[in-house]
């Protein structure tokens, strides 16, 4: 029996893929959109047979290379660290996309295939023309559209800054999600050495060691699970933790990433790393003083924060715009590079 609680993600049916409503794309909770892209030719081809799904992708291939994770059969599809977290249990390759499609086809019937995974590859670069018949309407948004493909794999729980609409094209996938406040209960690994750019939970969801990671039991009380069939989609709000398991020998997912903030706003991860460098190791009293400063100027900021300062003199305390953000970035870079 799976240790994950069977609390299901809320489902919607009959959503129009050509005109996704704002209440979906701005939701603050995960949503499963059943059958959202079932009409895609790519989905129908893969449902016929995995081989026909692979052939469908081949017709758009222009010879682009891709970033591929390759692991030995004994990792069981779990792309992770080595035993002491000093490296990883897989290696990276840069093969042509067609070589990865060939490898997936070659190992479709293997009982213990090598673990193969191509992650976050821009669709318009590697498969130009694919979106002509396989796309969704994002209501004027300009998302980054990526394709993910592989065989049976397990991607550790992680969070992404953008909002995410993930569409299952081939194979079944299980998503296990946690709200952002479960950070401490998920036992997150290193921030600056990660398998694919995002910090991950070091808990093995298939066999969680609750003696070593006892707070994970609390995280499980807040877990939400979604099982996606080909043609289904899931909306994952910004910063929600999600563990992704691909359940079949050939899996394809297309996802749409976008932010609800202007492009000139920097990544909050940069602020976190800078705070670790400059605030975390201060003496206790000084750190508490900065905690109050962050609460006042950042987390509890409102119209009253700078109301006592004349508007023309508020500078960075005024609402940010592109010009002010550019000026602030230049000032910060000058200080950091002193």
From TrEMBL:
InterPro entries: Cupin_8, JmjC_dom. Residues 80-273 form the JmjC domain. PANTHER family: HYPOXIA-INDUCIBLE FACTOR 1 ALPHA INHIBITOR-RELATED (PTHR12461), HYPOXIA-INDUCIBLE FACTOR 1-ALPHA INHIBITOR (PTHR12461:SF105). This is Cupin. The lineage of its organism: Bacteria, Pseudomonadati, Pseudomonadota, Gammaproteobacteria, Lysobacterales.
